[in-house]
Amino acid sequence: MTNFAAPRTIGFIGSGHIGSTLARLAVDHGYDVVLSNSRGPETLSGLVEELGPRARAATAEEAASAGDVVVVTIPLKNYRQVPVAPLDGKVVIDTNNYYPQRDGNFPELDAEETTTSELLQAHLPGSFVVKAFNHIHFKDLASQGTPAGTPGRRALAIAGNSEDARRVAAALIEDFGFDVVDAGALSEGWRYQRDTEAYVDRYDAEGLRHALAQAKRYRDA
Ligand SMILES: NC(=O)c1ccc[n+]([C@@H]2O[C@H](COP(=O)([O-])OP(=O)(O)OC[C@H]3O[C@@H](n4cnc5c(N)ncnc54)[C@H](OP(=O)(O)O)[C@@H]3O)[C@@H](O)[C@H]2O)c1
Q1: Which tens digits make up the pLDDT trace of 43-86?
Q2: Does residue 125 sit within a domain?
Q3: I want to staple 128 with a disulfide (CB 3.0 to 4.6 A). Which of 64, 71, 165, 183 is the partner?
Q4: Residue 60 Cβ contacting ligand 1 at under 6 Å
């Protein structure tokens, strides 16, 4: 069943730098979180303790089942290990970036025939993937959120093939303290991929829109 309701529980496939930072933001804003990693829930006990009663650790399958929205935040090379069935009908937020030194070579990405989030979407055909949080360093994610209306508020981009899913992701990003710039379909996600103008640098909404419009393909950069 498709779920575009405002989430109460956020599942995490991956609980490293970005996963744990997003989980902390989520707990701070009143969401429950279910964390997972590759080594098993017992290795997340310290983080769970630190996050408090709104957090628990589980297997990746269980985190995928428990989340109303699920964040996939792992090294891209492992994306085919993301559980498929429990994510059916759900909004899946994809923070992943492609670093060939870490991930090995993906010829379809090297040829710029597709994008990282479109690969995840193809792996999860029943889910609604939104590319988000990939172009901000985890320390900035923890520290740069501000209330809506703050002059110069940092903006983050989203892309996804479902407008409803983009709306759900945008509401979370707003909640976590950032303006949102909608880049459109997943195929537009390359505009804020690794080493683009929009990547990692701090922009408000107007600046980010400009950076996305100026983006160059790797082949033209
Ligand atoms: N670091 C940043 O500031 C930043 C910013 C934006 C985007 N990103 C991107 O976001 C993704 C995550 O980055 P990160 O810095 O958070 O990485 P990280 O600190 O290395 O954490 C990766 C997490 O993924 C887990 N994991 C790996 N394979 C898994 C699998 N098959 N199933 C479940 N969990 C798995 C790891 O668990 P184990 O430790 O148990 O293996 C770990 O919890 C990457 O694609 C990265 O490029 C990073």
Answers
A1: 999 999 999 999 999 999 999 999 999 999 999 999 999 999 99
A2: yes
A3: 165
A4: yes
Tokens of 113: 């025939």
Instruction: Determine if ligand 1 sits within 6 Å of the CB of residue 17.
Output: yes
Say which residue the tokens 């730098």 belong to.
17
**What is the separation, in whole angstroms, between the first and last Cα of the chain?**
42
The answer to whether position 91 is within a domain reads yes
CA 164 vs. chain centroid, Å, equals: 16
- Looking at residue 3, its pLDDT comes to 85
Domain of 102: which CATH number? 3.40.50.720
Testing ligand 1's pocket by substitution, the residue of 15, 25, 39, 74 carrying the most ligand atoms inside 8 A of its CB is 74
Give the whole-angstrom CA distance, residue 10 versus residue 78: 20
